[in-house]
Amino acid sequence: MSTVEEPQTSTSSSACREMSFAERQAERMKRLRSLHTARNEARSHNHQEVVAEEARNKLPPNYEAKRRQAEWLLEDQKKREEAAKQGKEYDRVKLLNISAVEAERLERKKKKKNPDQGFSTYEQATVRQYNRLVKNMPTTDMEQYEKQKQKYGDAFYGGPNVIIHGMHEDRKEAVDKMVNDLEGQIAKRAKYSRRRIHNDDADIDYINERNAKFNKKLERFYGEHTAEIKQNLERGTAI
């Protein structure tokens, strides 16, 4: 009887060892699949970050400021509509949530005809200058206007087939006014100087003030493209 039972015990022990190896192999494959999944997720996430960063780099420099301004305008319009539905005056409700100093500043700013909102774009600066020049124009002399209209006829408004060169003579008063205005603009630009912080630790790579401004322009436009060349020259490793 003992000779018959011994092979059965050996077969059972071998089966247990084989199951243990299969379980270990299954665990390894499970971990391998988990690592593959994590790698694919990291690759996808990195790709999304690269695409998002490239999209941000293509945006204009003042995109964030414009976005915040647009969000504020939408929120302000929403609150204004809610106040209108409740029969309340929005400007009065708005003043309840700000300090007296801020309210006074906003009121002074509102009273200005052409307030200086600060530089935003060159188009806005041009529009502001145009409005200022139009505001300074004298009142139109309607009598003189009608006389010129009768004198020039169809040439008064001009057209594709009308030659007006030499027909109109500028008045001396108008020429003097234009000259005075241009001289005033030149004098104002000459007095204007934006305060800049001087950095004592910065490298001196200029010979005079004009050359310093020119070097700053070069750095602003070409600095990122020539940074490596400049570093090689400073280290003495340039080819």
UniProtKB/TrEMBL annotation:
<dbReference type="InterPro" id="IPR013260">
    <property type="entry name" value="mRNA_splic_SYF2"/>
</dbReference>
<keyword id="KW-0508">mRNA splicing</keyword>
<comment type="subunit">
    <text>May be part of a spliceosome complex.</text>
</comment>
<feature type="region of interest" description="Disordered">
    <location>
        <begin position="1"/>
        <end position="63"/>
    </location>
</feature>
<dbReference type="GO" id="GO:0000398">
    <property type="term" value="P:mRNA splicing, via spliceosome"/>
</dbReference>
<dbReference type="GO" id="GO:0000974">
    <property type="term" value="C:Prp19 complex"/>
</dbReference>
<feature type="compositionally biased region" description="Polar residues">
    <location>
        <begin position="1"/>
        <end position="15"/>
    </location>
</feature>
<comment type="function">
    <text>Involved in pre-mRNA splicing.</text>
</comment>
<dbReference type="Pfam" id="PF08231">
    <property type="entry name" value="SYF2"/>
</dbReference>
<dbReference type="GO" id="GO:0071014">
    <property type="term" value="C:post-mRNA release spliceosomal complex"/>
</dbReference>
<feature type="compositionally biased region" description="Basic and acidic residues">
    <location>
        <begin position="38"/>
        <end position="57"/>
    </location>
</feature>
<feature type="compositionally biased region" description="Basic and acidic residues">
    <location>
        <begin position="20"/>
        <end position="29"/>
    </location>
</feature>
<protein>
    <recommendedName>
        <fullName>Pre-mRNA-splicing factor SYF2</fullName>
    </recommendedName>
</protein>
<keyword id="KW-0507">mRNA processing</keyword>
<keyword id="KW-0539">Nucleus</keyword>
<comment type="similarity">
    <text>Belongs to the SYF2 family.</text>
</comment>
<dbReference type="GO" id="GO:0071013">
    <property type="term" value="C:catalytic step 2 spliceosome"/>
</dbReference>
<keyword id="KW-0747">Spliceosome</keyword>
